[in-house]
Amino acid sequence: MGHPLLRQVAQPVDTFDAAQIDALLTDMEDTMRALNGAGIAAPQIGVSLRVVIFEMRENPRYPHVAPIPFTVLINPALTPLGTAKEEGWEGCLSVPGLRGVVPRYRRLHYRGLDRTGASFERSVEGFHARVVQHEVDHLDGVLFPQRIEDMTRFGFEDALVGQMVPTPD
Fold it and tell me: Contact, 88 vs 167, CB < 8 A?
């Protein structure tokens, strides 16, 4: 948090160089897994491109959420499905040790390109929708603390023990 790149809007991927994309995705995945993240955006590793990855397997940071398949999402476009939002605790690899309650759309449709440049789309809800919105925010220069509406529900993980309720999936 504080690095200028994390406040900038990332550039779209307009030239699909498979070797460059594969190298970027490898760096992103290695970083995400090393830090037990649910996802990561290219700007978080110093690359200003509209690329995110996410996955949810068994993860000690999120013990109560449903699995999310490993997904590469390039040049994403998000469309909320309805106006319903829900609050949930979030953390971030770029904001280590802090958590806060963030309202996000409950249901979401997203589309973009996969690692080969093929287009795809999905409609999702719950934690999956939350992760996508969180990661795509990074591509627009937004960190989760900027989305918190009640700053009394933001703080260091150690101090919040007992206050944090797992986000429903």
Answer: yes
Strand partners, 87: 103
H/E segment holding residue 54: strand 51-56
* Domain spanning 4-160: CATH 3.90.45.10: yes
Q: Which of 64, 143, 56, 52 is nearest to 100 (CA)?
A: 143
Residue 105 corresponds to which amino acid? Y
Position 57 scores a pLDDT of: 86
32 phi, psi to nearest 5 deg: -60, -45
How many whole angstroms separate alpha carbon 110 and alpha carbon 102? 20
Domain ranges of the chain: 4-160
- Positions annotated as catalytic residues are 135
Which of 79, 74, 70, 69 has its CA nearest to residue 114?
74
pLDDT at 168 over 80: no
Beta strands across the sheet bearing 85-90:
85-90, 98-105, 154-156
